[in-house]
Amino acid sequence: MEQELRFIETCNRAIAGGLIKDSARRPIRITRIALDRALHSRTKADRNPELLGDLRAYGHAKSQWFLKERRNLRSADGENVGSVSDRGGRTLRPILFVAT
């Protein structure tokens, strides 16, 4: 995933720097949900149902906070960036990808 994020950042810099002049291309805004609790590297392999349930509940709570904050997010020019539209202008529901 980090490789893809670096590629997006490279494209954003190219658009901002005028290297990509295609008007159909625009910068992609990436927002991450920060993990604000320390986990030991052993938790990557720990399949304890209690731990997994706790991590899922934590992830759910963080995603709800993220979506709530994002709903009213506006860019510097006042554009609502909390919603995403397809090419036809229809508003799309946000999708969160969660690794399990």
What does this structure look like?
The chain has two domains: 1-30; 43-100, no CATH class. It has 100 residues and is mostly helical. The chain is built from two helices and two strands, in the order H-H-E-E. The protein has a two-stranded antiparallel sheet with strand order 1-2.
Index terms:
100 residues; mainly alpha; 2 domains; 2 helices; elongated; disordered C terminus
Element layout with pairings:
Layout (H helix, E strand, L loop, with lengths): L1 H15 L32 H23 L12 E2 L5 E2 L8
Antiparallel strand pairs: 1-2
Q: Look at the structure and give the mean pLDDT.
A: 78
Q: Name the shape in a single word.
A: elongated
**Main beta sheet:** 2 strands, antiparallel
Order of helices and strands: HHEE
Number of strands: 2
**Helix count, DSSP H or I runs of 4 or more residues:** 2
Low-pLDDT regions: 95-100
What is the count of distinct domains? 2
Oligomeric state: single chain
Secondary-structure class: mainly alpha
The helicity comes to 25-40%
Q: In angstroms, what separates the terminal alpha carbons?
A: 15 Å
Indicate the radius of gyration in whole angstroms: 17 Å
Short description:
The protein has 100 residues and is mainly alpha-helical.
